[in-house]
Amino acid sequence: MVLVLDNDNAARAVRDHPELLLLGYAPWCERSAKLMPRFAEAAAALRAMGSAVAFAKLDGERFPKAASAVGVNGFPSVLLFVNGTEHAYTGLHTKDAIVTWVRKKTGTPVIRLESKDSAEEFLKKGQTFALGLFKNYEGAGHEEFVKAATAENEVQFVETNDRNVAKILFPGIASEEQFLGLVKSEPEKFEKFDGAFEEKEILQFVELNKFPLITAFTDLNSAKVYSSPIKLQVFTFAEAYDFEDLESIVQEVARGFKTKVCSFDINR
User: Which residue range forms the structural domain that includes residue 199?
Assistant: First the structure.
């Protein structure tokens, strides 16, 4: 059930629920309309996982007093309240991104996979994730991995101590004692981490590699595009049918400048 908040119950809902995920919206806002189904999908997914988070929505235009009281300052706004403390969501407007963010903020920064069946089931989600392989889940490298997982709000981190399980998720693993890789649902699917196992370097690796070679630019991901640490960005403006002829060329160019240049297409 999604709570419908107003001037009378908004503050009380935040106070009464230890964990509350709130969507602030306006009926006239096109971005709010696009986010609403993704918010509902995220709520359903979190419930299916057994999450204790409560869900609410607030028409901020109709109830401006309530919106101001709970921190809805624009539309759409996604806010998570944990014991009354507000966390504002600034990530991609997708179900998986919202679910990952909520799970991390409520105490589940890393998913542990210990069987081949669980790994195969996880792969069916088709989401981008960082994979860590650590013996007995111990050591300084593992500690830095968990720190990075807690700090990175959008990409799900997954760990295992079984090389055979890891190979299902990232087939290119060799004989490393500890391993980190990024798995994406695109042709350039696997990225191996070659840096030092330190929180800062792990976060930089994930941030620079999480975008596909070519990203479809939309109003739902524009904020993440503009806030990317990769400031050199190439935009291709074309009709969808024209871009089909250009895609392989743009991909090849983007591959040569990976982590240095971001490439986006805008279908008119």
Answer: 110-209
Question: Within this chain, do residues 148 and 188 fall inside the same structural domain, yes or no?
Answer: yes
Alpha helix stretches (DSSP H) within 124-227: 140-151, 163-169, 199-209, 222-226
CATH number for the domain that contains residue 18: 3.40.30.10
DSSP 137: G
DSSP 3-state of 6:
coil
In the prediction, which pLDDT does 154 show?
A: 83
Sheet holding 179-183, edge to edge: 110-112, 156-160, 129-133, 179-183, 190-192
pLDDT in tens, 75-121: 999 999 999 999 999 888 888 889 989 998 998 899 999 999 999 99
Could you write out the DSSP letters of every residue in 13-79? HHHH-SEEEEEEE-TT-HHHHHHHHHHHHHHHHHHHTT---EEEEEETTT-HHHHHHHT--SSSEEE
pLDDT tier, 185 (very low <50, low <70, confident <90, very high otherwise): confident
Q: Are residue 182 and residue 163 in the same domain, yes or no?
A: yes
Domain count of the fold of the chain = 3
Q: What percent of the chain has pLDDT over 70?
A: 84
